[in-house]
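Bug #77: duplicate submission created two jobs. Keeping one. Sequence:
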Amino acid sequence: MGHRALLAYRRDDAEDSAVEESSSTKGSVDEPTPAADSTADARYDLHRSHWGGADFALLDRLSADAPFAAESAFAVDPEPIATDCSLADIVRNYLDFLHHEAFYRVGPDYATTAFHVCWFGLEIDSEEVAESETVGHGALVEADPAEADYFRGWFRGTKAVVGDAVDRGCFAPGEATDYLAERMALWDDDREVLLPE
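Kept job's structure:
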């Protein structure tokens, strides 16, 4: 089955400038900009790795000499699945929160940030929820590999409690999703959290 990961490679400044100029003629775009990006209109090319989600293995393997970690078992497909995307667009329209185990944001200097992929689907945790969206239905939480098991356990426990609350009538499924988003946003002041807009 693999440990699937998506990777967003930041486009270089020249490409960013061209995108900024073209977007300025079309009017403003109302998309949130993550705090870690210094350019308001950062653009990314999106790639996938079949095994890259395993223990955040790609976190220290990408460099100018090995941009796709081709010599490792966690190699990234050099053929992009999408180009010139905003981070908000990737989180909303490309990231499958059920099937992707990790997400990476890769800077132009190959500085890499890893994220937990947290799916908000409750069908396993609630008898009242039959089916949930998988794309655009979850949160990305910046990962600290040393605390990865703790975080995963915390998230599984939180979903179990929320699913039980839905079954007891305390939450409607939509309210449960909002609550999970709030819990993710409050997880840790030092970690970046990305939610679909």
